[in-house]
Amino acid sequence: MYGSTLHIRNKMVKLAQVWCTTSFDRLYSLYSTYDVGDVFCVVYSARLQTVYLGAQNTSIQWCDLSQKDLRSAPDLTLHPSQRSHRFFDSKGPGGVTTPRPSSFEETYAQGGQVLEIDKDHIIQYAHFGYVYCMLISQGIDDEEEVLVSGGGDGTIKLWPLDAGTNGAIADPVSLENGDESILTLALDGTILYSGRLDGEINVWDLDTRQLIRRVNADNVDVLTLSIGHGFIFSGGANGLTRKFNSRYERITEWQAHEQLILASATTMVNGKRFYATGGNDDCVAIWDVGDCVKAPTAKVTSSNEDLLESLAQFVSYRTVSSMSQYAEDCRRGASWLRSLFKRFGADTEMLNTEDNKNPVVFARFHGRDPTAREGKTILFYGHYDVVAAENKKKTWSTIPFELQGIDGYYYGRGVSDNKGPLLAAIYAVADLVTEQQLISDVLFLIEGEEECGSTGFEKTIQKNKHIIGDVDWILLANSYWLDDEIPCLTYGLRGVVHVTVKVESERPDLHSGVDGSYLLDEALKDLIVLIATLTGPRGEVQIPDFYDAVLDTTSQENERYDAISRTLLQHNPDLGDAEKLAQSFKARWSQPSLTIHHIRTSGPATSSIIPRSAEATLSMRLVPNQSAAQICASLKRLLHDSFGRLNSSNHLFVKVDRIAEPWLGDPYNEIFQTLDKAIVEAWGPRSHRRRSSASTKPKSKFVGSMTKIKASPATSSTLANGSDHFPMVTTAGGGDHVTSPQQQYFPNQTSPGPLYIREGGSIPAIRFLEKEFNAPAAHLPCGQASDSAHLDNERLRLSNLYKSREIFRKVFRELPLK
Fold first, then answer.
1. Of the CATH numbers 3.40.50.300, 3.40.50.200, 3.30.420.280, 3.30.70.360, which one belongs to the domain with range 495-550+592-660?
2. Is residue 44 pLDDT above 50, yes or no?
3. Quick one: average pLDDT of 714-721?
4. What's the pLDDT at 339?
5. Which of 290, 322, 379, 463 is the most buried (most CB within 10 A)?
6. Helix, strand, or coil here: 331?
7. Mean of the per-residue pLDDT values for the chain?
8. Locate the Peptidase M20 dimerisation domain: which residues (predicted)?
9. For every residue of 371-431, which 3-state class applies, written as one string?
């Protein structure tokens, strides 16, 4: 299809012609009952079988070709060739008009069916200017399509297409960006490129509808854009073609035509890459661009400075998922992350969640040999959202969302949880892609709601499982070492159930002096009585059958706890007594618990108010073999039975807010043993590591004026006050790739490997991913105990960042060979 310009007696009439590309026969000739001027652009939706025209008279029109045989023959007296034009058909000198041809077939191409565009299929003033360019984009739903148009008003519009109404276009969403005309559009996934009248290329993310980059392409109008072979090609009004890489750096330029470049395209024929251009110098040129490859050829990923640049930019996005005012920051952070994946040659998708929650960023790096070891695939899970860091009380010594390097550490919210480890993994894969050492696929699933309980994550993964495909191993890096010296591997997590208990009265808030009496059932009193029934005097949980499924600790496990305690005390003697430390680990890793977090009441916060309602939030930490469903049922039954005995006039509500299953991995499997070997190679044997080797000074670019900063020491208080992801216990065997994992936990151990630990916190996604993909998971803690994740002055040691990249690189390269 194309918009054709037809000349009839000095006037220009515009039609859209549809041709068969094999026989070159004309199939259809489309015309409008309105004088549209020039037809600047035509696009076709194969799914809807509908043609869309963008015209000089600012209209967008469409014709549903699937209905062509159901319509009556058009009235050809309304054909443009038969209509009088007040300018072109006006009488000349002497009152004589130019004679018309006897029929429009004498001038127009022959053959095919003539179709008139329905008057209801015309949007007048689609833009306040010429409609210069259009294209079809995939919508949020796989079954949707969106028409993207650019106009002389400097606006890009996104028009949803309705399959139920003959491809009609619905009310658009506008992307505003100045007054300069949008002359050309190009699409790469959901990244939209627009060429402007002023020589600028704008880069838009259609998922977030945000302008993410401005590129100065030329000092003349950008008339064409093409995306292909990992590059961006622009054609200008001066006949120059310019080539940009994925980082928007201009690589080269050449004179493609003597005058305007009006059209361009990229293609591949027999494995060779080509770029074609057409100009108004009566020339079509085909260029061999075989030097273009999708993956980066320059070893940009080998620079640790480049990694720090990316970390600084990533930290600058305030991706706080718990606060609605940062919703756009979260979307921008997700878009930036996706663009980083694309920069390194990955195929990417933005997997949208329900209820407008933050999207999941999916990326696939293709190995050079998809058949190697039956195409085994590694899935890396992480998150780009962070907890809040408002710093209103100036408790941070640095600016939370500005990366700052001080004495070998980098400070900033999310640097340790989870942006630093995530970038280390991405750069590790990029290294292997550049060096052509990535054997089989590595996938990334990076969510934006982990700090809010992974809301919507499970449904999103299940909905898009056909895109993700099969998985052989799952890897994540979302926690920390037990101290600041010894690397760890995590193979177990407690589960968690979050519950809200609310007691509510039908009365309003009352004054205790005016209305208070022993006859009044107070909501807060009832709530306190109920909460008191849940635990005993020493914290033991009183829910019926709560401990029935908890496995007894074996003598071998107790020895392991003792051995890890002694190992930690060698580096941290201020942790205290080894026996008490081991008991603390045992209680917080392999035993369940119940915690009351908050109690909130209605009404103003004054001492004389009787609140009409009161609610408490609590959580129960579960261990493997416990059933979250059974415990939730027992909790509800206990609360309702206890409330019934109060004979209160109030009402009780119990709501389970979210559940995360406990996880227990297998430290003897291939992924753990590959990680073990990589850790020893990166950090060296444990007996050779010394405190003095811990500090690696940061490069000067990110170093501030500060020389010292207060951080949490690696003491027992650090272990006790950790976040949800903080390692709390060590239980089963570890060791290196030669010695039995159990050996390293006995006194006088000599094993060089990391400590194999379990944790008291919870990560909702890990057990779900294991079950959904039927693949084992392993957890590599990247940071130290003093990283202060979720706390003020969050930090990550530079050497930990670099070593994590090295470890991931070894694992991504070697694990598919197992």
1. 3.30.70.360
2. yes
3. 35
4. 86
5. 379
6. helix
7. 83
8. 498-640
9. CHHHCCCEEEEEECCECCCCCCCCCCCCCCCCCEEECCEEECCCHHHHHHHHHHHHHHHHH
